[in-house]
Amino acid sequence: MDDIDAMFSDLLGEIDLLTQSLGENTDPPPPPVPRADSAVNLSIGFTDLNESLNELEDNDLDALMNDLMADLNASEEKLAAEIEGLKDPSAPKPDPPKPATSAPSPRLPSRTPSLPSPPSPQSTSSTVTSPSSSCTSPRPPPQSSKPSKEEIEAQMKADKIKLALEKLKEAKVKKLVVKVLMNDGSSKTLMVDERQNAREVLENMFEKTHCDCNVDWSLCETNHELNLERLFEDQENMVEPLLAWTRDTENQVLFKEMPEKYEVFKNPQNFYLWKKDRKTLKDMKDKDKEILIKENFCGTSIIVPDLEGVLHLKEDGKKSWKQRLFQLRASGIYYVPKGKTKSSRDLVCFVQFDNVNVYYGQDFKNKYKAPTDFCFVLKHPQIQKDSQYIKYVCCDDERTLRLWVTGIRIAKYGKTLYENFQTSAKKASLSAMFSSSNQSTPSPTIKAKSPSQANGHAPPPPGPIPQDFGGIPPPPPPPPPPPPPATVHPFPLLPSGPAPSPPPPPPPLAAKSSAKLPSKHRSPSNRLPAPPSSVDPLPPPPPPPPNEEAPPDFLPPPPPAASFPPPPALSSMPLPPPPALSSMPLPPPPALSSMPLPPPPALSSMPLPPPPPAFNLPPPPPDPCFPAPPPQVFSGAGGPPPPPPPPPPPPASLGPVAGPKLAVRTAGSLKKTPPAPPKRITPSLHGGGGGGGGGDFMSELMLAMRKKQGN
Amino acid sequence: MPNKSRAPKVYSAGYKRLTTPTSVMAAWDLSVTVEDLGADAPPVTLSVTSDLHVGGVILKLVEKTQIQQDWSDHALWWEQKQMWLLRTSWALDKYGIHADARLFFLPQHKPLKLGLPNGKTLKLRASFSSPVFQTVIAICRTLSIRHPEELSLLRPIEEKRKKKDKDTREELYDLTDVPHTSASRPCMYNGMPAHFMDSAQMEVVYKMLSVTQPPPAPEVVSKQYRPASVVDKAHINGRWLDSSRSLMQQGIQENDRLWLRFKYFAFYDIEPKYDVVRLTQMYEQARWAILLEDIDCTEEEMMLFAALQYHISKVAPSEQQLLASTTAMDNLESALQSLEVKLEGENSSASEMLDNMTAPELCDYLKIFRPKRLTLKGYKMYWVKFQDTSISYFKSKEECFGEPIQQINLKGCEVAPDVNVAASKFLIRLLVPSPEGMNEVYLRCEDEQQYAQWMAACRLASKGKSLADSSYQGEIQSICSFLSMQKTNSNGKTSSTDDSINTYSLVSPRYHKKYKAKQLTPRILDAYQNVSLLTLTDAVLRFLQIWQSLPDFGLSYVVVRFKGSRKDEVLGIAPNKLIRIDLGVGDVVKTWRYNNMKQWNVNWDIKQMAIEFEGNINIAFSCITADCKIVHEFIGGYIYMSTRNREKGNTLNEELFHKLTGGHEAL
Question: Can you tell me the distance from the alpha carbon of B172 to that of A534, in angstroms, rounded to the nearest whole number?
Fold first, then answer.
């Protein structure tokens, strides 16, 4: 029982970290509306912020920050309290929260307009991820002369304003906790925020599953009610479609290999020369394939395969299907009306692609009396139930189906599709290289690596969400032996796949599989304590888990997102990183700050050390960050890597690096400290020292602001 | 190529024969007509020997005429042989010229009337002596069009003579005074080729070249020749000039009229910054191809083309001014601007974030109707609040702080206008997606202003943008302007006044019959909402893209007869393949791709082309509506186009072009 409690509290803590959201979401807000409301409320309060922020004295700003913080804490406490309540009655499952919140779909649990969370991990992520606004732009500003004292003050002020704004903004970001089903029946849970696209989520999955990252891996959504399945295009935002799911949905998100995803780039002739005989297609030379791709995807406009053929169309509201001669054009699907010619001007528009997505229909023969089971559907993504606005089309054979669905995707997404493929292929080849050298990574299946300290995440246990959570908790036990650098993989693996499973309580939930989302609010307090207690039971807190799995799930998302390149690097070179780290323990911090990418690898590579330090030294990290968070952020973005003074002097070589990271997390869990991610930390220190690049950026920003005010 | 190598051979052989015997050759009389002396002047007679080289003949000629002028552009033209004597070091004997030769001494560059893709006519001096390929290069250089290899000249379709008087009055843009530069790229000044800066007149010409023309009057469109079938379309391709021979050799006379058109639809390296004229003319050619149904499209596509034309015609004038004024300041200014933008961008990270959080709202009393739900009740007045991407409605303004009767998120919805200005009907039809399907909601506005605001808001919301989006005002304006268009349309039926656009000008004549103007307007407006915020360049590019993604894009047709077949069929020549079209059904019967092509030959005697593809596939056909040479040049030309690449830079490999297309010279 104790164990369970401990785990639960861990869970809570973790969740807290993730979604520092709050308060309101516990209430049963129906998906769409609530969101809007909460956003509205927030905005109302801050209407005048713009002017007023500038008028504020520094003290005031500090006060504002504190207020924000306090708000957060308060809400967290409230949540915690609620959770406690929930928890008692039932087993320690995430479930309780779900019901309570009446979150829409099981999966999408918390779309929480999170309160202005302090620089929690999340916020960090947000800053990192949303390059568009702040982070990215800052980089350019080169350093200039040294700022005068006033300037520094001005900068600080501006920093604070900005930080406050960032937090407000962050508060509006929707996040979902999504359970993704693997092909082996297991599942993984991860946090997806609304700024992430499917590619970023895929990268997260790659990290969690150690699969071979080939281009076929896809995230799919299924619609249970309509028997549909569709893969998310890499550039697609994930949160939006998931939010369209109904509350009681049995829809699922799958992670699996879909060879048709990029088949058109592997064998373009099958689509662009589909009329040719099979042998010609099969014997197509690579050079000719390249030419085809170049012709159709690299010109000033993309060319859609010229598909034309008789398909069966389900008649509105009836179970009968009638045949029509359809034609695919870049502008939509058309059909030839009875008695007319195929001339373009006589064609009748069947559908245009702006507002519809294409889905594979499954088992339509049974469900809709379709002539064959090779069906596709065109519908607005928000429609979830049978409706006259859904178009059901049936093809004679599988090949035709593939042709049409792919053709429609090309028409709808155009060049983006090709760019996505290139990105995926790059990633795949990188990881292939590494795996071949290492041979450590089993490619295709996402097998949870057997042993690993399972955070409980990976393990196949059919267990749904709950398990995952349970997994997370395994607060890394204190005794993290020096992780063998070389064997990185092993670590990452969740050796304790089983271990995680222990928290089977979730199974029930698992059945639902859908989601685990509800608000996971764990009181931070719980969290902290938990680790220690829980520690014992669990084996070597899988170092990797913390980094790769547990943390990654929630916090990590941002990093990958922010730095595309990095992920590949990580996955691709699992082994290398560790060694490097181990060799130069101290340096890590700087490195991190300077290059976003490295961090993730580092983490994954050196699992063990982190945990311990974190727990032990939680305070240090937070403290440093606290005071000068803003500067950190900025400098992090573009600043030169400052000395890595980070506190954790700890033990092993790895220790230092890990330390900061962990610290961050812990901090997050504590909730009091606005834990800055490692990156930030450095910056902060830096900022204090003498404002490097960050300072310059800020001064520019100030200038710009003044200018604007002047206007 | 054989011909290339043969010329030198002849030369050396002749040289030996003529020069070694130093004996004095017999002198004979050569008469040369000097054009500059006037048409009636008798030929000038010179006493020459067969070993006199052409340069010497010219020298004698000039001395004899005693006219002081610049003769440097003049050359001898041998009428019977239809050839220029351009190698001045060749002796008469080498050319095979005897006393019976009728020679003309005339300038190589002569004025030519050039019909541009935009329908305007330009008068300029073109070379009548160099191969058309080079002539086109020179013309394009003058006009500032990059990649001249994609264009060529063709004989125009004769216009009906009735209107001839009118035609002669047509405006001519005169460029005959422009000196010929041999610089590969004209120097640019303020974004304009320097020679267009010389005078106000020249600037007018440049404006004509670089600014899209307003939509033509519907009458103009309907009067123009429109091909009615694939065979009609095939005929036009019989008009292309031979790129490897000169204008003079092809019977083109001074002041004749020719069309300059994009011939090879493999547009390479389009760069809006440098391709102002090129893009403009490309757009014009595409637009006319659509209006005249030279290329088929569906009704939906036609509406989109119409919307883009409308948008382009609306933005073109204003944006052009902008361009003119900014180019004056040029680099420095733009650098400063971009800096400013950058700063503001950073700044905005703070202030904009706030703005985003304090989204403006729109509130008003509107009539709402939900067809499905309240079928009997009709429209009912509510207090409606638009915020973010949602509308909420309340019974009255006073209750707006409570729970709304309903809140509808418009993200992803379809927005359709239902407007009749004359009848004061301003309806916004919303099709809002929900898990159960699509729900219809109608919003009825009182007047134009209100309608424009709400319509703009709905459109932005459907794309997931809030009222705070910077495009909101622009959207309102474009809606207003479209409304005013409808107004003028319904008031004065003939809206040929300059400031309004007749929707009939934007679509092919087929739709004039099919729809009334007021039916057409909403359809175009519908398509317009997706493009109304594009910049001029983006709109032009979009137009071109849609054009290029039409299934029939890039196909040049020729009627041919395949070997062994007794009926006429159509060969479609595309940038990457040949297709065989059965005239009876109109279907594509067969496709051959160039990259599978091993070789092709022309039998000039029986005018037959034979092509061999990989896998032992051989086809042969004779050309009916066009000369073999034209077909040969099309195919070779496309293969040439595919050899272009960045590494080779922008220099044209003229030799290769002629190698691939010059076939007949090989004989």
Answer: 90
- Cβ within 8 Å, pair B544-A300: yes
C-alpha to C-alpha distance for A543 and A541, rounded to whole angstroms: 6
Task: Using alpha carbons, list the distances in angstroms from residue A206 to A16, A398, A567, A630, A670.
Answer: 24, 29, 9, 32, 29
Substitution target from A239, A342, A705 for chain B, most B beta carbons within 10 A: A705
Q: A446 with A338: CB under 8 angstroms?
A: no
Retrieve residue A538's tokens.
């669990």
How distant, in Å, are the alpha carbons of B148, B261, B262, B414, B660 from that of B153?
11, 6, 9, 46, 18
Residue linked to tokens 């991190």: A592
Task: Determine the 3-state secondary structure of B96 from DSSP.
Answer: coil
Nearest Cα to B227, choosing from B284, B285, B288, B283? B288
Write down how long chain B is. Answer: 667
Q: Are A533 and A476 in contact (CB under 8 A)?
A: no
**Residue A449 in contact with residue A493, Cβ under 8 Å?**
yes
Q: A158 to each of A133, A698, B76, how far by Cα in Å?
A: 15, 7, 80
Of B297, B436, B586, the CB nearest to A387: B436
* Helix A415-438 / helix A398-413 crossing angle, nearest 10 deg: 110
Beta strands in B191-320 (DSSP E): 192-193, 257-262
Residues with Cβ within 8 Å of A516's Cβ and at least 6 positions away in sequence, in order, are A94, A98, A106, A107, A109, A177, A179, A189, A464, A465, A466, A468, A469, A509
Residue of B nearest to A289 (CA): B595
d(CA B272, CA B280): 10
Q: How many C-alpha atoms does B218 have within 13 Å on its Cβ side?
A: 20
**CA Rg, chain B, in Å?**
32
Residues of A in contact with B358 (CB under 8 A): 43-44, 46-47, 49-50
Distance CA A627, CA A62 (A): 10
Closest Cβ opposite residue A172 in set B357, B435, B595:
B357
| Residue A468 CA to its chain's centroid (Å) | 16
Tokens 């941002």 sit on residue: A558
- The 10 Å CB-count burial string (b at 16+, else e) for B301-316 is bbbbbbbbbbbbbbbb
Confidence of residue A70 (pLDDT cuts 50, 70, 90): low
What is the C-alpha separation between A702 and A519, in angstroms, rounded?
A: 38
3-state secondary structure B562-590: ECCCCCCEEEEECCCEEEEECCCCCCEEE
Averaged in consecutive runs of 10 residues, what is the pLDDT profile of chain B (667 residues)?
Answer: 41 44 74 87 90 92 88 92 92 91 92 93 93 93 91 85 52 77 57 75 88 89 87 92 93 93 92 91 96 93 94 80 49 52 48 55 84 67 87 85 85 85 86 86 89 90 83 84 68 44 86 86 83 90 94 93 91 94 84 90 88 91 91 93 76 84 61
What are residue B520's DSSP bridge partners? none
Question: What does residue A374 show for φ and ψ, rounded to 5 degrees?
Answer: -100, 80
Which residue of chain B has the CA closest to A130? B349
pTM for the full predicted model: 0.68
Instruction: In whole angstroms, give the CA distance from residue A563 to residue A598.
Output: 10
Determine which of A137, A157, A307 to mutate to test the interface with B (most B C-beta atoms within 10 Å): A137
Neighbours of B138 (CB within 10 A): 19
Q: State the average pLDDT for chain A.
A: 60
Cα–Cα nearest to A520, from A448, A472, A582, A575? A472
Interatomic CA distance for residues B115 and B260, integer angstroms:
6
Q: List, edge to edge, every strand of the sheet that includes B414-420.
A: B406-409, B390-394, B380-387, B361-369, B437-445, B425-434, B414-420
Tokens of A18: 């993730």
Query: Quick one: CA dihedral B241, B243, B247, B249, positive or negative?
Result: negative
